[in-house]
Amino acid sequence: MMRRQQLTEAQITALLDPPTDQRELVRHYTLTAADLAAIRRCRGDHNRLGYALMLCYLRYPGRPLKARERPPRTLLSYIADQIDALPGSIEDYLAAERNRQRHVAELQDRLGLRPFGTRPAADLADWLLPHAIENDRLAHLAGLVVEECRRRRIIVPSPGALERLCVQARYQARGEVQRRLTDGLSADQRRRLDALTQHRAETNQSWLAWLRQMPEAAKPSAMLGLIERLDHVRVVGLDPARGHRVHHARLAQLVREADRTTVQHVAGYERQRRHATLVAVALDLAASLTDQAINLFDRLIGTMFRKADERHARAFQADGRAINEKVRLYARVGAALIAARHNKQDAFDAITAVIPWDCFLASVEEAEALARSEEFDAYQMLAEHYAGIRRWAPTFLDAFVFQGVPAAAALMRAIDMLRDMNRRAVLTLPKSAPISFVRERWARHVLRGGGIDRRYYELCVLSELRNRLRAGDVWVVGSRRYRAFEERLISRETLKELERDGTLPIAVDADFERFIAARRALLNEQLAASDIKARGGLLPDVMLDKGVLKITPIEKSTPPEAEAVAARLYAMLPRIRITDLLSEVAQWTLFTDCFTHLRTGETAADPRILMASLLADGLNLGLTRMAEACSIASLSQLAWTADWHIRDETYALALRRLINQQQREPLAAVFGGGSASSSDGQFFRAGGFGREASSINAHYGDEPGVKFYTHLSDLIRAVPHQGDRGDRQRSRARARWAALPPERGLGPPSPHRWRRRFRPCLRPLLFARVSVRAADPGSEEPASLHIRQGGGLSVARTANRRAHQHSARPRPLAGNPAGCRLDP
Question: Lower Cβ count inside 10 Å, N or C end of the chain?
Answer without folding.
Answer: N
